[in-house]
Amino acid sequence: xxxxxxxxxxxxxxxxxxxxxxxxxxxxxxxxxxxxxxxxxxxxxxxxxxxxxxxxxxxxxxxxxxxxxxxxxxxxxxxxxxxxxxxxxxxxxxxxxxxxxxxxxxxxxxxxxxxxxxxxxxxxxxxxxxxxxxxxxxxxxxxxxxxxxxxxxxxxxxxxxxxxxxxxxxxxxxxxxxxxxxxxxxxxxxxxxxxxxxxxxxxxxxxxxxxxxxxxxxxxxxxxxxxxxxxxxxxxxxxxxxxxxxxxxxxxxxxxxxxxxxxxxxxxxxxxxxxxxxxxxxxxxxxxxxxxxxxxxxxxxxxxxxxxxxxxxxxxxxxxxxxxxxxxxxxxxxxxxxxxxxxxxxxx
Length: 348
Ligand SMILES: NC(=O)c1ccc[n+]([C@@H]2O[C@H](COP(=O)([O-])OP(=O)(O)OC[C@H]3O[C@@H](n4cnc5c(N)ncnc54)[C@H](OP(=O)(O)O)[C@@H]3O)[C@@H](O)[C@H]2O)c1
Description:
By secondary structure, the protein is an alpha/beta fold. The protein has two domains: about 5-150 and about 315-345, Rossmann fold (3-Layer(aba) Sandwich); about 155-310, Dihydrodipicolinate Reductase, domain 2 (2-Layer Sandwich), CATH 3.30.360.10. It is about 30% helix and about 25% strand. It has twelve helices and 15 strands. It has helices at about 25-35, 50-55, 70-75, 85-90, 100-115, 135, 150-170, 205-210, 245-255, 270-280, 315-325, 330-345, and strands at about 15-20, 40-45, 60-65, 95, 115-120, 130, 145-150, 170-180, 195, 220-225, 230-240, 260, 290, 295-300, 300-310. Strands 8, 9, 10, 11, 12, 13, 14 and 15 form an eight-stranded mixed β-sheet that branches. It has a seven-stranded parallel β-sheet with strand order 3-2-1-4-5-7-6, sandwiched between helices. β4, α5 (about 100-115) and β5 form a beta-alpha-beta unit. It starts with 13 loop residues before the first strand and ends in a 5-residue tail after the last helix. The structure holds NADP nicotinamide-adenine-dinucleotide phosphate (NAP). The site of NADP nicotinamide-adenine-dinucleotide phosphate has 29 residues, from α1, β2 and α5. NADP nicotinamide-adenine-dinucleotide phosphate binds near residues 66, 106, 151 and 152.
């Protein structure tokens, strides 16, 4: 079978399929839909539920993610265009947003069809040729066929650490991840009244995952806590050159994907950040790292800061940039600028 991979550069818009229209998939679909150089050719669901109905209502062509479940959509009166195999045929790239570890199972279909694919952070590093963060390693994904966008926590860590490393150098990083236990829509699992060291033995997987996209000495510990809104990271960096607090603030302010928020404005917790985001963004999606300005400190030559990460949104711009890198459409800075403008990043 002739590979589709070689043909794609001549096309005007990259045709993007979203396999798994869930928390991440629906957001990535809407973000891709806002770009001039790519379009959504279809999305998939396994269940004919409200999310499937919403996809159709928004104008996305809906396909069954699992062939055997196609008839459930007919029975529920929801129009589908076919199955994932039909959708893959129409796509230049599949963004796999299926549940963790399912992406690796789906890969066989993409390889067989000769279509490029982007996987998410729930997959192992080995699922793709490279792991991706736009700031730290856009160029590594140029022309690649299989790319993994790292997880929400890894994306949040990598952005700030890349900026610190580029400007001051990094000897080592120690970070504590205070993780939201599940996403807000989850009603089958959660943690109601406890704080769970997760994992109990060091290190958590986040440090090693950062190393897939940024060369840095990092150790992380992680806890799950009973909240659904955002993660919080407490980060401590030993830099090569000790900056002033103002130097750090200036560097972070210069990057649109970092937002500096202040306690003076009432941002005393993730609850307040989300309350504000509900006013300024659809679905209160915060694509930016939210760094508390007052937390930025230099103590004994080490940098400290605390940031909040909206887990449902932060990887969305990275998926859009990954497409541009894989199809060699734009340089890192050009792609990030276009993505930022389309999503309102840098305008809050
Ligand atoms: N949520 C986060 O905070 C977050 C942040 C960063 C990265 N990620 C990563 O992003 C990926 C997706 O996570 P998510 O939170 O978006 O999950 P999710 O909300 O559970 O959505 C998963 C979607 O995949 C569909 N699906 C189920 N089985 C499938 C299959 N065999 N093939 C294709 N699609 C299938 C589901 O359809 P039905 O609902 O119809 O069954 C659903 O639409 C995971 O790798 C996760 O680790 C998640």
